[in-house]
């Protein structure tokens, strides 16, 4: 049974008009197509031997480039990597490659399988990324909404060794408008396609996982105009992660749950500045002789 109060708190669509939602969804695809036009890269690269999922690599060059691995939102049931490359040209101008990841969507794909897939995408960057001009030692993971949840599952511990990865498989994270404790969704509309139980919701919640021994730096961000549940969870997860790794909680003024993500297409926004600060933290240090 849905709880009307919980359902309202986790209704991102309820915070914008249908016209605004449609406009932003169109903006994702239009801006992404424009950003990657004539940009060096590789489309539709298979990254996971256990599924048909693919990723795109944009902004590559002769020398290995730091990696912005970006995971789309869509409440785990819509959108794709093709809607999630609008930042690629701006980042390429700063010497950063963009890896936009597809994953299976609900209800055909279970949430545990989505988590497995995005972790496999991180493993692909470590294993095959250097052959595509990627620096596997400088990976910043990013996601918006459902993508922020999936990105956070690559930052917690307990899965890396099975894929032959170091404990800190990603080196920093930008998590935008995400959900990190999935238990409330049992009582919201999203459970019509996620099929969560109390146990599975807890198991899939980054906020309930133990902090890694050496948590990667993270920026937790949200829009000014978020539904209450998203706003609350951003604050709670920031407090949780900050116990092991200091980083800011950003509230982007004038933005809603959907259009805040597009700020990454503009080099002069607060979110873009946060990306560059995170990459600066991943830069190798040299001790003077």
UniProtKB/TrEMBL annotation:
It holds the Pfam family BD-FAE. It comes from the Bacteria. Residues 62-154 form the BD-FAE-like domain. Keywords: Hydrolase. One of its GO terms (molecular function) is hydrolase activity. InterPro entries: AB_hydrolase_fold, BD-FAE-like_dom, GDXG_lipolytic_enzyme. This is BD-FAE-like domain-containing protein. It comes from Gordonia sihwensis NBRC 108236.
